[in-house]
Specification:
Radius of gyration: 19 Å
Structural class: mainly alpha
Strand content: under 5%
Shape: elongated
Order of helices and strands: HHHH
Number of domains: 1
Number of strands: 0
Number of helices: 4
Largest sheet: none
Length: 120
């Protein structure tokens, strides 16, 4: 391969790496925003309902969206957020998996924030 060909190949690889980094950064940002939206809505709901766990489709949908946005960057966290979504459909049912507390979810958001900042 010629030097010009080597330079073109290297340039193409660098462009692809930058594109991947940008896309991953956008996905992380979207995950953080969707988790925060679900967290805020849940916090406000529980504060206004005196901590009562009553089925709530809106909260279920918000946690489901957070799981969807998180799946490509952290599948384990996405699975736990999906469990949170199911919880809000039927909060009275016994669970096989422990449901994350809101404080634990904020810890995960902080980890994502650190990952996001590190990528800058």
């Amino acid at each position: 391969m010629s030097t010009v060909g080597d330079i073109r190949l290297l340039s193409w690889v660098v462009d692809k790496l930058h594109e991947h980094k940008r896309k991953n950064k956008e996905q992380t940002n979207e995950a953080i925003a969707s988790i925060h939206a679900a967290w805020s809505a849940t916090y406000n709901y529980l504060r206004n309902e005196d901590g009562k766990y009553i089925p709530n489709e809106k909260l279920s949908n918000l946690w489901n969206e957070a799981a969807r946005c998180t799946r490509l960057i952290n599948a384990g966290l996405a699975s736990q957020l999906q469990d949170k979504s199911r919880f809000w459909i039927h909060p009275e049912l016994p669970r096989q998996n422990r449901i994350l507390k809101l404080t634990e979810i904020m810890d995960e958001v902080e980890r994502l924030n650190k990952k996001f900042i590190k990528k800058n």
